[in-house]
Specification:
332 residues; Helicase, Ruva Protein, domain 3; Rossmann fold; Zinc Finger, Delta Prime, domain 3; 3 domains; 5-stranded parallel β-sheet; two-stranded parallel sheet; 16 helices
Length: 332
Amino acid sequence: MAEAEHELRVLEIPWVEKYRPKRLDDIVDQEHVVRRLKAYVESGNLPNLLFAGPPGTGKTTAALCLAREMFGEHWRDNFLELNASDERGIDVIRTKVKNFARTRPIGGAPFKIIFLDEADNLTRDSQQALRRIMEMYSDTCRFILAANYSSAIIDPIQSRCVVFKFKKLPEEAIKERLREIAEQEGIEVTDEALDAIVYVSEGDMRKAVNVLQAAAALGKVIDRDTVYEIASTARPEHVKEIIKKALEGDFMAARSRLHDIIARYGMSGEDVVRQMHRVIFEEDLGVPDEVIPELVDAIGEAEYRMVRGSDERIQLEALLARISSIGAEAGS
């Protein structure tokens, strides 16, 4: 009964929100960003901002913390958050954004903040409309745009913003945060499990916390196998084994191992090729350096064909055959 209560409690709590930093000082390993944002808070003024960087590195958290520290108890009244991937049409910019921007701030705040998350998903027409609104309501509103790829934001908007680059989070910073959460939740995480979470999250703190919570739903002790199964990711040593067998010319053994991994972890073809690409650069395959570009080229072609709609199983087996040919040429 106690174990069932533990599982229910874990599943009902969204840890990503529960442990989201509430102050700028609590943001993990983005000191260069935090220092500049705190200067804006101290001055009481703010330009338009563009947060750019990989997912899960603190862009949304930074915007929320900035609003809290800038506006205090009235931050919700003066802060509008929209996700541009869901609301990306020009009508949203002309209605929701414009209506919020044209009203005066509440509670004596000097201005309002409109936060557009995933702004790189806005259509070009929407961005053109947004550019005009940023000009018209500069006295009552400031804009914060968050994007994974700043190149998708049109130049007129970029020139109106101060750009903040968020860097990929280092492994130790993610581990330290996960240890803090595990301690507060009363769960035990082995060092190997932490390494596995770091591997599958690839610098994304949000994904790391979600994987930790999902694994914790299965029990109070989290090990490496649990993490890989929860994340539907194969162990890197297993993927390395597939590539090695193919390079050695043992195509049937590599094919059999590949099918075992797909069945066990429920991976898609694209998941497999992306993990193979990662293993090529992170693991020692014992092949000459000139072979690596050929492997990357083969993996890239396989992924392209799968994205275009080709059968995943056929393309994966064709990739293994190509790798076997590369290994045979390298050994001859």
